[in-house]
Amino acid sequence: MKDDSASVAEVFARLALELHEEVGVGETVEAVVQFALHAVSCTHAGVLLSSRGGQWETISATDPLVEESDRMQVELGEGPSVDVLTEHTAVLVPDTASDPRWPTWAPKAAALGLRSVLSVRLAAGGSTLGVLQLFNTEPYAFEPDDDAVAHILARHASVALASARQEATLWQAIDARKLVGQAQGILMERFGIDSDQAFAVLRRYSQDNNVKLRDVAQRLIDTRTLPGQRQA
């Protein structure tokens, strides 16, 4: 474990405070990755996060080598992070140059200079959010203390990520509601109808044109027309 001037307890106290202050998923992940470099014996770190459609993408990485390792794991369907996403809560790779578990990915990772790997699942509320990935250019770099700290870091990160995602979803819903309200006001003024009738118009256009209600409202606000109508 790296011996910074601050104790591990101080590092995590600062981490908890900064994660609480982050406003979005991207900022939260970046804070996690940067703290990993200070709290664990790693030279590179990254987070592979779930996205829409069941896909996984590298959200943050301290070096392009991490992104290349992720790309290979996703394309090959093998690697420590793939195992963490599908069956294990954590995977330790003492040396990619000699580990037989991933016959295609491991030699490629070793060739990149990523010799030690520690991958820990990020999860909250029974759902897997992603993987915290820690790398070292030296083999057998991770000690038992590093594993313990990585798990604590992952728990902090999981809670922060879950909260950030929920907050992002909440604000998206609020924004959509505001847009629909503005669009209703435009229709009410233009056609002399009430709010319920205006909402029915928006919903009908949404269904008939297979366009999200939020997008119908946005188009009406921006262009003063609805899907299928020509601009004046």
Could you explain the architecture of this structure?
The chain folds into two domains: 8-168, GAF domain (Beta-Lactamase, 2-Layer Sandwich), CATH 3.30.450.40; 170-223, Arc Repressor Mutant, subunit A, CATH 1.10.10.10. Mean pLDDT is 84; it is low at 1-5. The chain contains eight helices and five strands; from the N terminus they run H-H-E-E-H-H-E-H-E-E-H-H-H. The protein has a five-stranded antiparallel beta sheet, with helices on both faces. It has 232 residues and is of the alpha+beta class.
Features:
232 residues, alpha+beta, Beta-Lactamase, Arc Repressor Mutant, subunit A, 2 domains, five-stranded antiparallel beta sheet, 8 helices, 5 strands, 56% helix, 16% strand, elongated, disordered N terminus
Write the CATH homologous superfamily of the largest domain.
GAF domain
| SS elements, strand count | 5
- The CATH class name of the largest domain reads Alpha Beta
Spatial separation of the terminal alpha carbons? 67 Å
CATH architectural name of the largest domain = 2-Layer Sandwich
CATH names the topology of the largest domain as: Beta-Lactamase
Q: Indicate the proportion of strand residues.
A: 15-25%
The helix fraction, in percent, is 55-70%
Please outline what is shown here.
The protein has 232 residues and is α+β, with helices and mostly antiparallel strands.
SSE arrangement:
Blueprint: H1 8-21, H2 25-39, E1 44-50, E2 56-61, H3 64-76, H4 80-86, E3 90-93, H5 105-112, E4 116-124, E5 127-136, H6 144-191, H7 195-208, H8 213-223
Antiparallel strand pairs: 1-2, 1-5, 3-4, 4-5
Helix pairs in contact: 1-2, 1-6, 2-6, 3-5, 6-7, 6-8, 7-8
